[in-house]
Amino acid sequence: MKVILQTLLFYVLTVCVFILSDLWAKGLGEKYASHIAMATAALFTFLLVIIFCKLRAMPLTEAGTIPDKGSPGRIITGFLAGLLMSCLQPGILMIMGYVKLQFNAFDPHVIGLHMLLFTLISCREELVFRSYALRSLADRFGAGSAQLFIAALFVFEHIWGGMNWWMALIGSGTGALLFGYAALKSKGIGLPLGLHTAWNMGQWCWGGKGDAGIFTQRITAGREALSEVIGLSVFVGAALFAGLAIAYYYKRSVQS
């Protein structure tokens, strides 16, 4: 029970940090407010990770927040896999004739700002959900229970952020399980950070986040609900395949 209460306290404090960072950044101007807020929230979340790890006598390496020589490779691998996953949804929907993509004006400055923002968002969320919190629960209750607990928090935060419950439960819930599994298997946040960042970037680029990315999605009239179901199904299938690939890779690494 103590571990659960500590984890919940950690999470509540990260939310407080996020809210305060957002309020502070808005006072500095609108143009880069989101970037400043996310960078500040990620920094102070990392400080919370350090504090709570010390309280539990957990090394930061065990929490997965200290890079090692394999970290760049895991980040790149996760990033490439995340990009591939993000391409499957619009690709399959286009093949089925449910979606057409409209190319928008290519503005490197706007694209760069969005890429930076999604990187910062992923850094903050991986520190919150896949470092101290996940590892401390996994050590005490096992990986399965820890995954479900953290996934529930992840879904809650996305619903709180305005996402509809169906999309949050299936989409964010599946993402939480994949990212958590990647973190536990790789013993760090590098692999899930790459996956998470690339997924968010790809979704925006293909117009899947509701606002105009590099492309805007035009869904065939009358196919909106079915397109959403197919899109979610494709993501769940891709996440399952990615999880199996991770399991195979790390099983082979242990045997070799």
Q: What keywords describe this structure?
A:
10 helices, single chain, 77% helix, two-stranded antiparallel ribbon, 256 residues, 2 strands, mainly alpha
Quick synopsis:
The chain has 256 residues and is mainly α.
Distance from N terminus to C terminus (CA atoms, Å) equals: 38 Å
> What's the helical proportion of residues?
over 70%
Uncertain runs with pLDDT below 50, 5 residues or more? Answer: none
Number of helical stretches of at least 4 residues: 10
How many domains, as an integer?
Answer: 1
Give the averaged pLDDT, no decimals: 91
Strand arrangement in the largest pleated sheet: 1-2
Radius of gyration: 18 Å
What does the largest sheet look like?
A: 2 strands, antiparallel
What structural class should be given to the helix and strand makeup? mainly alpha
**What is the beta-strand fraction?**
under 5%
The quaternary organization reads as single chain
Shape: globular
| H-E string | HHHHEHHHHHEH
* Number of strand elements: 2
